[in-house]
Amino acid sequence: MLYDITRPQTLDNISEWVNIVRKKGGDIPIMLVGSKIDLADEQREITREFGIQIAEKHKMASFGEISSKTGQNVTKTFEVLTELTLEKTEL
Prior knowledge:
single chain, Rossmann fold, three-stranded parallel beta sheet
């Protein structure tokens, strides 16, 4: 699940989205990802710590932050998600 670190309202429906995914997808790993970290210095409104708290509150498998503009952490995030998915399918 992706949210924008510069727009708090992008987390407004996170509980509902998690419930829908779990209802439809079963026990699959869900990762929370904050986007637009290239704007963090000037426009960040959601701290990394708060993102982690949201992920933990909703028992998500992982948390990360990315910038699709600069590519920062994009590959790493997909690697983590792939590992989580493979671990789940091995069980």
